[in-house]
Amino acid sequence: MTNTNDAQRRARQATGAAPMGRHAAPARDAAPAHPARAGAPRAASQATGAMPPVPAQGGVRPQGAHGRPANATGTLPDLSASLPTLSVEDVQQQPMGAPVITFDHVTKVYPAQPNRPSLHDISVQIYAGEFVFLVGHSGSGKSTFIRLIIREIKPTDGKIYIADEDLTTMRNWRVPYLRRNIGCVFQDFKLLPNKTVFENVAFALEVIGKSRHVIKTQVPEVLRLVGLQDKLDKRPDQLSGGEQQRVSIARAIVNRPPLLVCDEPTGNLDPQTSRGIMDLLERINRTGTTVLVATHDREMVDNMRRRVIALDNGQLTRDQDRGVYGFDV
Ligand SMILES: Nc1ncnc2c1ncn2[C@@H]1O[C@H](COP(=O)(O)OP(=O)(O)OP(=O)(O)O)[C@@H](O)[C@H]1O
């Protein structure tokens, strides 16, 4: 059996990730055995996919620690350095790295709906290398959760951290740098209709100033990964829905972000195509990328048996390892 501390140290050495102590977050393995307790909190624009610079047995998780110390130096760490990535070996040995996403008593109230929080007092942590499903009825708060992660909106209360970065105090000019580290996939693909497959993916690199050499190398590589090496010159309207979603996934990961968030990525696709997309997301996860998927796809969640976080009416009602979709959502 792998020693937790050794594995964590190895993962940090491999990735340059910050030590756990900086996060004041418990390792999952170090958490005490805990009885199931429903409701226990645990702790380019869309056209670039990398976010908007431009246009075992199921068991409910124990509560995580909150309250994170300020950066000791008072300076903002380089985000790409602070977001941990794990090698496949590390992920297999020790899926629990440093927290990549921390919600600490987060509440979101939209001004247009002042009497009903869209998220209410959510505390949860998602760790490097995890694959997590976010489930819940329509209107339960899933998209709000994702919009908070990419700092499209700010919480009304509470703190949100991506790796070591406090999104609630982050200056606006830092937001594009945050988003370079978060790949995003949406239900409606958000591809540029007049650009080819290659150009759509290349665009995500162009807007962050990557050289032509990098673009010429990385774009074909990522399109091969998603199985579209033969469609480089097609426009979106010449592709099936599943192929369009593969382009949008390629665009989201071409810059190799350590975190991939997907809002209903299979919402417009038939079951077989959806399975292919989820297989792809699983493969991406196996390379060490942390993957968060908001979905209504019961069959997929039940088949894949990954961690499930359930929201109901803005409240976190379930956080389950190897979970199922459930009948409470
Ligand atoms: N911009 C907004 N202004 C006011 N209320 C909003 C806004 N966006 C969302 N809401 C409300 O917040 C709640 C949560 O919405 P959200 O879109 O996060 O839910 P969801 O779980 O993603 O739903 P769906 O599965 O239908 O996409 C809903 O009551 C919704 O009406």
UniProtKB/TrEMBL annotation:
Pfam name, any one: ABC_tran
Keywords: ATP-binding, Cell cycle, Cell division, Cell membrane, Membrane, Nucleotide-binding
GO cellular component, one term: plasma membrane
Gene3D superfamilies cross-referenced by the UniProt entry: P-loop containing nucleotide triphosphate hydrolases
Alphabetized SMART domains for the sequence: AAA (SM00382)
Top-level lineage group: Bacteria
Compartments in which it is found: Cell membrane
Sections of the chain in a coiled coil: none
UniProt-listed GO biological process terms: cell division
GO MF entries: ATP binding; ATP hydrolysis activity; transmembrane transporter activity
InterPro entries named among the record's database cross-references: AAA+_ATPase, ABC_transporter-like_ATP-bd, ABC_transporter-like_CS, ABC_transpr_LolD-like, Cell_div_FtsE, P-loop_NTPase
Mode of membrane association: Peripheral membrane protein
SUPFAM superfamilies, per database record: P-loop containing nucleoside triphosphate hydrolases
Residues annotated as domain ABC transporter: 101-329
Biased composition (Low complexity): 21-44
Keyword Nucleus among record annotations: no
Function: Part of the ABC transporter FtsEX involved in cellular division. Has ATPase activity.
Subunit organization: Homodimer. Forms a membrane-associated complex with FtsX.
Record protein name field: Cell division ATP-binding protein FtsE
Upper lineage: Bacteria, Bacillati, Actinomycetota, Coriobacteriia, Eggerthellales
